[in-house]
Amino acid sequence: MRAIRLGYATALITLFMAASSGVSLAENDFKQWMQQQQNEFQEYKDLRDKEFTSFLKSQWKEMRVLSGIKRDPAPKPVSVPVAKPEPAPKPQLKPQAKPVPDTAVQHGKSKPVIEPVLIEIKTPPLVKAKPKVKPVVVSVPKGNVARLEFYGHSLAFYFDPKMKTKLSGRIDEKAISQFWSTLSRADYDALLNQLNKQRSPLQLNDWGFALLINELAKNIYSGQKNEQSLFTWFMLIKANYQARLAYENYKVFLLLPTQQRLYSETYFTFGGKRYYALGMDGNKAKPGKVFTYNGEYPRANKVFNMEMSQNLNTGSNKQTRKVSFIYKNKPYNITVGHDRNTIKFLQTYPQMDIDQYFKSRVNADIGNPLLQQLRDIIKGKSEEEAVNILLLFVQNAFKYKTDQGQFGEENYLFPEETMYYPYSDCEDRSVIFAWLVRSLTGLEVVGLDLPGHIAAAVRFSSDIQGDKVRFNGVTYVVTDPTYINARAGMMMPQYKSVKPKVISFNAF
After folding, report:
1. Measured between alpha carbons, how far is 211 from 155 in angstroms, rounded to an integer?
2. Residue 92: pLDDT over 80
3. Do the beta carbons of residue 343 and residue 417 sit within 8 Å?
4. How many CA atoms lie within 13 A of 424 on its CB side?
């Protein structure tokens, strides 16, 4: 791409050499040529755009996509086992007084009675919900206005009318290059400034920011899906994200690299880095043999971080449902809630490794009411009893069904989604259970990865009987929120002889 700059400099040197050697060149012709060159460069806001436009005209090659990465192929249990109920405690008989041993009598003392140590939980304070901040409005003196709804918020963006363009003719390198050239000559900086100013009040992570740009693209280019993808690609690059484009026949695909490994998403590999063909609406993009380029726009070097380290600030649309469980023959009715706008956002999320779900941040507006109800139930209980109550809650309050049965494919759920969907399976239950234990007891939790199954394990302050795992020199007691009525220390029978892989994570 440096060839253009070198050519420009060489031409200037040649002209000055010709003039100095006595070659006649009319002064007005020279000035006219110089003005033409300056105008050509000034049409672009950035020299990089002129070079990238030229690059896009030729540096394309045909590629075949790689199939999405598959998770654990071992089948999950269609039905889950039920543990035998804990036997009722035997009535305690008042012990008869035993004679004091001679040694104690000789010293005039009786031996002290050793009482068992009861470690009560110390419930940490609830994470306070952040106050809702309204999205900002950035005034722009001129331009068209795009009004859109973004997860419960009404937003307005002003944009240069020159940005509203169409692909010319068939989709090929020339058409895509022309589209980039047109947008790069428009006033995209003002629009990018408005988008960036929404990041903080909307609490957008990288994926949320991409969705906001795509929602704007849908408004500006209504019904023009290829133009929407091209606009999103252009604006993400201008926001310094690495993004690429591919096309086949009559369709354009956006390619994004991510810091996290994604599953069941087709991808290309460039320089050892995966670029995923992602659909912004939650539907999977399925390109076949496509044409794409192998190059980067200068200084566009940000790789998407998909972590859920903060919750999207949505317009509130809360809904609730009732669930129940029984503990020591006493029924408990619990209200669980969800925010419909949060669910819509999470439904767009591509599937990641299970540790990303274990450590994700839960929307405090949704989580705190559930935590408070369970806090009242475990108040004054020992660590073991509190964890067993939370196990019973997750085991019985949420109905079990595999992802294949509910969604037709593997689909890990964030805690808010488990509160929303009618069914959940082993990894979903383990994720929400781990969040409950951390939030209500402060105890450390790890995940357990078994063939076709995910469970959890808790680090107690005292020795608990039952099945355990050792990790980094620390003992964790097995807790399985899918094994119905199982208590802490009970592994599913079919996994007792299997050594699990420990899933360690640091929660946000």
Report:
1. 13
2. no
3. yes
4. 26
Asked if 171 and 226 count as a contact pair (C-beta separation under 8 A), the reply is yes
Instruction: Please tell me the distance from the alpha carbon of residue 172 to that of residue 250, in angstroms, as a whole number.
Output: 9
The 8 Å CB, 24+ separation contacts for 249-256 are 249/171, 250/170, 250/171, 250/226, 251/171, 251/225, 251/226, 251/287, 252/171, 252/176, 252/225, 252/226, 253/229, 253/277, 253/285, 253/287, 253/290, 254/229, 254/278, 254/280, 254/285, 255/292, 256/210, 256/304
Q: What is the mean pLDDT of residues 390-419?
A: 96
Q: What is the pLDDT of residue 289?
A: 82
Q: Does 290 have pLDDT greater than 80?
A: yes
The 3 state secondary structure assigned to 426-488 is HHHHHHHHHHHHHHHHCCEEEEEEECCEEEEEEECCCCCCCCEEEECCEEEEEECCCCECCCC
Confidence of residue 107 (pLDDT cuts 50, 70, 90): very low
- Report d(CA 244, CA 292) in Å as an integer: 8
Residue 360 class from Cβ within 10 Å (0-12 exposed, 13-18 middle, 19+ buried)? Answer: buried
CATH 3.10.620 domain extents, the chain: 318-503
Instruction: Give 361-420 as a 3 state SS string.
Output: CCCHHHHHHHHHHHHHHHCCCEHHHHHHHHHHHHHHHCEECCHHHHCCCCCCCCHHHHHH
Entry pTM: 0.85
CATH code, residues 318-503: 3.10.620
What pLDDT score was predicted for residue 313?
Answer: 96
How far is Cα 422 from Cα 333, in angstroms, rounded to an integer? 16
